[in-house]
Amino acid sequence: MSLTLRILCILGSAITFLVIASRVRKARVRIDDSVFWIVFSFALLVIAIFPNIPSFFARLFGFQATSNFVFLVVICVLLMREFSNTIKISTLNARLDELVQEQALQAMEEVDDDQQS
Amino acid sequence: MKTLAVIPAYNEEDCLEQTVRSLATACPEVDHLVVNDGSTDATQLICERCGFTHVNLPINCGLACGFQTGMKYALRHGYDAVVQFDADGQHLPEYIPTMGAAMEAQGADIVIASRVLAGERIEGARGAGSRLISTLIRLTSGVRLTDPTSGMRLYNRRMIELFAHGRDLTPEPDTVALIARRGGKVAEVPATMQERQGGQSYLDLPHVIRYMTRTCASILFFQWFR
Questions:
Q1: A99 shares contact with chain B (CB less than 8 Å)
Q2: What is the CATH number of the domain that holds B38?
Q3: Inter-axis angle of helices A3-25 and A31-49, nearest 10
Q4: What would the pLDDT profile of B26-39 be if each residue is shown by its tens digit?
Q5: pLDDT tens, B114-132?
Q6: Domain limits, chain A
Q7: Counted domains in chain B
Q8: Domain range spanning residue B217?
């Protein structure tokens, strides 16, 4: 792993951590939802400080360069995250629809009751 | 047969009043429910002023969600059939009794008002899309539908329950195909339609591409494991 990549990893880690910390402080992100990014930022830092760890796995799996291995891992992690977000958003939309419908139908019945009484 | 016309309306101030009035005049025995899907124009005011039965969704949540609201209402108020009816004046209420008669005579779960059976040829890209969907439905479910994209459909009690409780059941051709493949009976009756009488069509290119991709993917892939 080149020195440039290590510095970029540290920068990425620091920026991720600072941004997510400030969002949590302003209550824009719930602590529950920030866990992924804290772990992600920490992992980048570990990779940058101990490049032997990714090098070991890169050699184990037969990668030509450690950086290739690091890129692949990061892409995979983010794709998995994106996938789970899609499912989460779908679920949220379904629940939102349900709430909207129930609220609207109940409000309608209240108006009907008022008119009858 | 106690029938409810569910009329989804999103910013339909131009023609909603005329649509509901002509429905009430042509079919006094059919009740209506306007589903005001978070409109930002005078749709709600018109409903209140004219005394239309209506339900106001607090936000715009889309056709499928709005239509499902109508199905839930129909289920809770004991309707035997629901007709999906456009607010823009495209659909002619005169055909609702014909569709109801076909439903009873053929024991159909869904009756579609087909422009093609009435001798109309749907022109241009819209027609090509419609024929493509027809072909896909015939190949996957063996059911011949001449006008799958017709938005005027009558659903029986079983379908009302299915739509009210179901997840991700859009009032669109892919759901009709799914129901047909699962053994539901889908019938068509000839019917003419009008040009839309006002309001905005959402058939611009990005919407069309999205609609076609979604519909084709749903018919070709997803219905096998839904």
A1: no
A2: 3.90.550.10
A3: 160
A4: 999 999 999 999 99
A5: 999 999 888 888 899 999 9
A6: 3-116
A7: 1
A8: 3-224
